[in-house]
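Issue 218. Parser rejects a valid record. Input:
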Amino acid sequence: MLNIFHLDMNFAALRTDYLPKLLERLAEMGYNAILWELENKVRFDQLGPAVDPEAMTKQEFRQLLNYARELRLEPIPLLQTIGHGEYVLLHPEFQHLRENPLRHDCYCTTLPAVRLHLKKLIAEYLELFGDLRFFHLGGDEAYEFGTCDACRAYIEQHGRNRLYSDYLSDLSSALHMRGIRPGVWADMVLAHPDEMDSVDRSLILWDWNYWGSGPEDREVRIWGEGPVTQDTLTDTHRRTFPGLLDRSGRFNAFYTTDFLKENGFEVILASSSRSAGDALFGGNFNRHARNIIGCARKAGESSLLGHCVTSWAIRQHTYETQLPLLAPAPRAAAEPQRTPESLLRETGEALFGTDPARFYEAAHLIGAAFPFDQTGDVGIQWNGLKDQLPAPAGFIADQLRRWREEGTLPERRQQLDEARAGLLRGIALLNDFAVAARHGLDILESWRCAAHLQLGQYLLAQRLLNEETSREYAMLAVNLRTQFQTELARFHRPESARRNAGQVYDAVIAFFSGDSTGQRSVQ
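Output the parser choked on:
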């Protein structure tokens, strides 16, 4: 079975002296494959002006790839071929490939120029990666898919899933010729379950499920609808997905995986160690732990092709803060009868040399998000896209105005007040645990830095929610930006560290400086 970790280079130009160390740790934990989402962080000829200035040369990446293979980490490239094309489509030279001229995230799937561009890029990937068994073609969250006139006409005649599948089958022709199996994320086809017969069965479907953990789950997600509870479950849901409930009438957390298998697909189930809803500097530890272990156990129990832990770089916390989450997954897949508690205890003791219970409690408390402590609140993904464009002038003031008009400011202030006690207790527990730990000091150092930044963000959020401009707090945000940039520089190349730190703090600094035009800020 494949135990896969997802290395996402969206937003992140990672240091080539850091990546081998991370690969070593993943191999030691029992991972046997890496899903490489390179985007523009390797100097692909086909990307031209879209290549990041700090991108690796092909030779640098080949050396890294060879080392990964020595560690018995099988490479699986991930190239986004429908949505999440921001890093390409943002550039004037590629704007003609857009599905919607006003948005830069989605390729037009009926446009011959798109297919030619991506086939050339796939050929470059194949030349760079060499021998492969699998190739991931992306395909998730393509919200503009099928909206142009030509695509709509195709869909009206053949259906959405037919356009989706026919397009990917065309792109996959070079892969099939080499015996490489193509795969895509499953969410787009699951949103139209009545059209599953239109989907090419040669595609491996990567079923990303970032909320499921097991029979204790009180809700599930229906693609295209959102969360469903026992109270909102309908007969239509039951008819569409007969496996939605188990024999006891409880939710089957992994009903989509079972649905895809029953429809003749091979499935890789995906969990996450970084995803939406996370605090800026440390994720929702308990949620991710339950999700990762639950998905790994399901993959082992159901003899799936594999389990992948995804880690989306648009969420800012470092890989070091995630390592305690990553350790249990391969063991959970190999021994699905083990309880989550026993797996966490065993892997935590191996990481730290002592009982990890206090650390887990500390991480959960420190990683609890509050207002202005999530990506969309501070300017990251301010437009809903993964493009790393700076937030527009006045973004924070506009955010506060929206919350005021919605009447949610009092609720958000209450959320912030409630976060204080947990954050302070988490910091105390972490400091106490660090004294007892015998190993894993680099992990604890990253968590201590995260805790400090979380506390700083709490102080900033207090003033932001009260809509107070203050030069003193502008300077605090400047200092925190410097500290976060220094922490990121341990793992990122210099400009990448600067850019990511700016994404968190620049809009906040502008607000506290009384800068509504974007022309003035404290430096």
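Fixed in the parser; the record now loads. The longest strand covers residues 267-274.
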